[in-house]
Amino acid sequence: MARLAALAGTWSVEVRDLVGDGGVLATGRAEIRAELGGRSLVFALDLVRDGAPLAARGVLAYDARSERYQLLWHSELAPALRVAEGRGDVRREGLVLEAAERDPESGALARARTALRLAGDDRLELTQLGQDPASGAWRALQRTTYSRVSSAAASAAPPPR
Questions:
Q1: What is the value of pTM for the model shown?
Q2: Which residue ranges form the domains of the chain, and what is each CATH number?
Q3: Which end of the chain, N or C, is surrounded by fewer C-beta atoms within 10 Å?
């Protein structure tokens, strides 16, 4: 899928809290690799929060049979491994991926969404949304902004002589 392959490259990253003070939670870099003919992206984020290193890893893939995207995400910023799936177009309205998880203490079902949208060729936004259990309303909790440093093609090119 050419849509996913266009996201491959090196990115600077800023993670911002959208619930509290709106402050920056972490900054760093991401390497996003396209694999399997562009049907999968492998994310490797290395971040810093309050001077401490943090890592996040993920795989975003397109399942041609179900015509859905699937995301597997693991981060030191969040305690749980997240698996989400959904539809959309990263260049238009964005991908909206949804996950349902049980709270380990209460057993309550919590739903979460991840919205991934390419805002121009050099800016990618990943927004985490949570659903209010009482009202059912969705609200943005956290936004990760990726700013392109180099594309995969540029980073794979040999150095100039």
A1: 0.85
A2: 2-150 (2.40.128.20)
A3: C
